[in-house]
Amino acid sequence: MIPNKEKMRERFLRDSLPRRLGGLAATLGRISSSARNSTNMTIVQNLLEEAKYLIEWAAADAEPETAAELVSMQILITLWAKTWEAANQNKTQRTLLSVQAKQWSDRALDLSGLL
Question: Which of 13, 56, 65, 101 has the fewest CB atoms nearer than 10 Å to its CB?
Fold first, then answer.
């Protein structure tokens, strides 16, 4: 559950699409780090939820190819969120999410054009 989701949405949508994609990349990077290092399962769950919303809000203004790629990420993030409670108990699964989230983060940063 994301507290103040509407405030977060309003703030996020004030930024340009490249900055929104950069923000998404940062959240995905936090998922990568937290999945690998955190003992608090809730942190990763909250970040996965946040990433789903950020993708939804960014994809709406993106070019069709970019939006399609973001939605593909969102589907996988949703699957991870649904299975995270069980996956969190397995170091291999935590590592897998960490690697995948890092790849997503790198791709979102590429899509942003900020580098």
Answer: 65
